[in-house]
Amino acid sequence: MSLGEIAFEGIEKRYGPMVAVRSLTASVAQGEFLTILGPSGSGKTTILSMVAGLTAPTAGRIRIGGRNVTHLPPQERRIGLVFQSYALFPHLTVEKNVAFPLAVRGTPRGEIARRVEAALARVRLGGFGARKPAQLSGGQQQRVALARALVFEPDILLLDEPLGALDRKLREEVQVELKSLQRDLGITTLLVTHDQEEALSLSDRLLVLDQGAVQQVGAPHMVYRRPANRFVADFLGLANMFEGRLEAGGLRLPGGALLPCRADGRAEGSPATLVVRPEHIRLGSSGLSARFRQAVYLGHLQRWHLETAEGARLVATPPPGATAPAPGTPLPLGWAAEDGWLLPDGTDAARPALAGTPSLQPA
Ligand SMILES: Nc1ncnc2c1ncn2[C@@H]1O[C@H](COP(=O)(O)OP(=O)(O)O)[C@@H](O)[C@H]1O
Ligand SMILES: [Mg+2]
Prior knowledge:
Number of helices: 8
Largest sheet: 6 strands, mixed
Low-confidence stretches: 349-363
CATH class of the largest domain: Alpha Beta
Strand order of the largest sheet: 6-7-8-3-9-10
Helix content: 10-25%
Number of domains: 2
Radius of gyration: 24 Å
Order of helices and strands: EEEHEEEHHHEHEHEEHHEEEEEEEEE
CATH architecture of the largest domain: 3-Layer(aba) Sandwich
Bound molecules: adenosine-5'-diphosphate, magnesium ion
CATH topology of the largest domain: Rossmann fold
Number of strands: 19
């Protein structure tokens, strides 16, 4: 059993009548980078706090390295934290900030100096030890926080929206650095974010959370390509969704159109929801006819917003360099059958609040 393995066994957290986390059973492998992705208030921070020992679960057990740590105090867990709320001490130098976890553990001075230097070098901040946090950029401050979290060589690294305050370009830089550092150290890492791009780019696996309940766990491309339900499809990227009935040739919409998909052995006539990503829509091929509404130019790509005769709204990614037609221009469209994903049976019934035909929400 490796020291960095985490197992959640039926974890529940209530605050009075409010259930913040419900029946969480999952495991994180040694060295794995798992991202907990979900909207604000979905229970992400609560899960990390329970791993860190800052919050006790109402029910269930947490094991780390096979050992039941559910009621172990934080200082007895070998965990490094970079939390939004755990900012650097502004009055201490960078060196003293990084030394802090070692000092509270009673580490001898000589060893503190040696380890602090190594930790700062790791995050490429050698030579910045004498500065105060205010004399560093936001990205550098986050790297100091990372050095502080890693300086005592924890078994697990917990990151709660650590890059949220950085601007986009800097965020990507720190992401790249964080990922390579994590890989070099082979440290089990739990990252919390509501940023889907960050989740998709950094993680070995994603755990998608909504209202305290796990919606799906899987590799980023699986969760993106094979979402388990409407919530996941909508939360991760843009999703065109259609409700209809299965036929031999595809999904029949109430308006009569037959959309390409594979029935995957499901009974003809059964109701189903089809998910098609914008980048899979091929304009000009037939299946569905829609009218052009508007183009959104994003620099590296465009998105075209379309509407079917029944009033369903769609988003498609046109080929690079395509010129947008006039609003109202009819555009036949289709996709390869294998690019249509049928949501697993019964996933919508469980989520009446999110039902609606078809829905499209930019995440
Ligand atoms: N100490 C607390 N007391 C009462 N409710 C809390 C407390 N901490 C969190 N909550 C509630 O638990 C839910 C999950 O919170 P949190 O884990 O912080 O969500 P996230 O990090 O995903 O935004 C929210 O509804 C929040 O209001
Ligand atoms: Mg949070």
